[in-house]
Structures are given as C-alpha cells and as structure tokens.
Amino acid sequence: xxxxxxxxxxxxxxxxxxxxxxxxxxxxELGDQLPxxxxxxxxxxxxxxxxxxxxxxxxxxxxVAINSGERARVTRPTPETVLNGLTATVRxxxxxxxxxxxxxxxxxxxxxxxxxxAARHADDGGIARLQEALMENHQALGxxxxxxxxxxxxxxxxxxxxxxxxxxxxxxxxxxxxxEQRHKSLMNKGAAxxxxxxxxxxxxxxxxxxxxxxxxxxxxxxxxxxxxxxxAEGSSKTx
Length: 239
Fold this sequence. Notes:
The protein is 72% helix and 2% strand. By secondary structure, the protein is an all-alpha fold.
C-alpha cells in the first residue's frame, strides 16, 4: 500500500471557507459589513493573524473590500479582479520564450474572435468611436509614444463594441502583460505604418459588418506583430 500524506489546513483557510459560505448563503449580502476582527475571532475560535489572513485572501478573490479603519465590506467579484490575480503568474511565464509564444497564440485566439463579434454587433455609435480611434492612431504616426497609446485605444474601443465587460477586462490585462512586446515590435522600421494599415482594414470590415474580413484582418495584424517582435528580439541578442 502506498503511503499518503494528509496535509493539515491552515486555520485561515478554514475561516475563508466559512466566510465564503456565509456570503454565498446570503447571511452577509452585497454591501454589508462583516463583523469586527474581534467578533470573527470569537465566532471561529481563532487568533487575529488567522482572521486577517483570511480577510486578505477574500479581498484577493474580490469578495470583500478592506479600507483602513473600517470593517471589511462584502463586494462582488469583477472580471478585473479575476484577471489581476493572474498577473504575477503571466509575468513569470513571459520570461520564457515558449511562454511568450503561448501568450501570443492566446491573444490571437481572443482578438480574432473579438473582431468577429465586433463586426457582428457594431452599431452606429460603436463604429463612430472606432473611426475616431483610427483617426487618432493615424495622427500619431511619427510619434512613437503617442502611437503606442492610440494603438492600445483602438483595440480597447474594439473590445467595447460587443458590450461584454469580460472582453474589456481581458483586453486591459493583455495590454499590461504584453506592453514590452508592443514596444519592441514597433521599433522595427515601418512597423507603425504597417500597424495603422491593419487597423484601417479592421475598421472597414467592422463598419461593413464583414465578420470574416474582420477576423482575417486581425489575424494578419497580430501575425505581423509577432514576426516583428521576434525579429527585434533576435537583433537585440545578436547585436
């Protein structure tokens, strides 16, 4: 018979489970303040460190908000909360070349689908905002910092068009995770003009509700971005 090890759980983990259950059961509703730390210590028969560690864990999960001098308050998790919790792991993954390729593939998968959805659901207001973002992107040609900002904004507006907050949160997370890649790819000669040209193709497809064309343009755009990144990455290692 194989030997099995049973790991004893920390007291703070038990407190997390109890409080999470009380929140889900409705004993503590959205906006309610939790009992004081002392009351929680007495209720669960644990010390202050276990209570504080549990509240910190619940805050990371997006279930409570903790403000200095106030009792923890029940909140609702958001897409941003979930994705922010992945940031440290993703940054570690991006230190490895294979991890970078996997993230590029994930971005392509997401944004190609997003372009299709934007083309399918774009209304007049969304098309007008995307056109304005495209114009600002064009005006920024020649100013690398401004171009990067307008590049991000173009993709942000595209993420807004389907009116799904999860899409916007994923976009913002990807922007943060891949900032260095965007900067490095745009260092290549002609890269900014090429990116703008792809943005223009994406805009036209979205404005025409051309689902297949929008996806194809996005795939072409991100394919170029990946190639330019690896070209710049190779040059920096051999230079």
